[in-house]
Amino acid sequence: MKARWWVSNSDGTISCSLCFRGCRIRSGSFGKCGVRFNDGVGMVAPWLGRFCAVAVDPIEKKPLLYWRPGSFIYSLGSLGCTMDCPFCQNHHIAFPSKDLYDARLPTLAPSQLVRDIKEAGLSSVAFTYNEPTLQAEFICEAAPLIHDAGCAVVLVTNAAMSRTAAGDLLSCLNTTDAANIDVKAFNPDTYRKLGGDLDTVRANVEAFIAAGVHVELTSLIVPGLNDSAEEFASMVDWIASMSDAIPLHVTRYFPARSYHEPPTNINLMRSLAAIASSKLRRVHLGNIPH
Ligand code: SF4
């Protein structure tokens, strides 16, 4: 499967426009995501259509609480990420070791994926665990087959894809599909620290909602990073300005990768959820004991 969203430059570099970063990649080098490569002839994406994590999950794990509740979903994860969060829970695949990168995994044909979903007795598939933008070509090819088979597509994404790629991806999705989008902060500087871009994420969230895809948002509250009530309230205002029916998952952080602050204080989680509930109708706490 050929990589899309890139052009060659006269100096032998390649400009990638799949995500907001717009990497200019020298011959023999990878882009920042670690899975898009300039082989001297063009852009190659050796992990396109290859999935190292395959599972059947409850839909609530994505998390999606207002889309096919109680169902199970075929779930696929691959390698790489378009951001660089120091607290990533899935860093072993988002920033893989060389061993995993070199693993000889077969390439999945979109038609085989449809058979796999059906054989599992399911009617939906999630591109999840790592950033699905990096499988955008595969998703665009598979989505029509998935829809024709009466199944639906779910993306669990950081929404850091470029506006062009987001538009192309959305043209392959329809109103039966869903996404959980991580809004990692509501401060441009914090987003930059995480290797992301707030304006891109805001625009893409709005585009997904405008396209009629069912969208639920996740806000992971990370101590010392995005836990100010003021910043959180600004995010809630933005969400409410789109619709007070958009579900918001306020989720507790646990230490991972290179971020070692203790888990988010549960009282803080509750007070932030109360702020959200004053403007939104569907607010849920995640990762805390009941
Ligand atoms: S997908 Fe993003 S990070 Fe990867 S090469 Fe393209 S622009 Fe760079």
Provide structural commentary.
The chain is an alpha/beta fold. It has a single domain, classed as TIM Barrel, CATH 3.20.20.70. Helices cover 30% and strands 19% of the residues. It has helices at 91-94, 98-101, 110-119, 136-148, 163-172, 188-193, 198-210, 229-242, 266-277; strands at residues 6-8, 14-16, 24-25, 37-38, 43-44, 53-58, 72-77, 124-127, 152-157, 178-182, 214-221, 248-252, 283-286. An eight-stranded mixed β-sheet has the order 6-7-8-9-10-11-12-13. Strands 1-2-3 form a three-stranded antiparallel β-sheet, with no helix packed on it. The radius of gyration is 19 Å and the shape is globular. The chain starts with 5 loop residues before the first strand and ends with a strand. The model has no long low-confidence stretch (mean pLDDT 97). Bound molecules: iron/sulfur cluster (SF4).
Layout of helices and strands:
Elements: E1 6-8, E2 14-16, E3 24-25, E4 37-38, E5 43-44, E6 53-58, E7 72-77, H1 91-94, H2 98-101, H3 110-119, E8 124-127, H4 136-148, E9 152-157, H5 163-172, E10 178-182, H6 188-193, H7 198-210, E11 214-221, H8 229-242, E12 248-252, H9 266-277, E13 283-286
Parallel strand pairs: 7-8, 8-9, 9-10, 10-11, 11-12, 12-13
Antiparallel strand pairs: 1-2, 2-3, 4-5, 6-7
Helix pairs in contact: 3-4, 4-5, 5-7, 8-9
This protein binds iron/sulfur cluster (SF4).
The site of iron/sulfur cluster (SF4) has 11 residues, from loops.
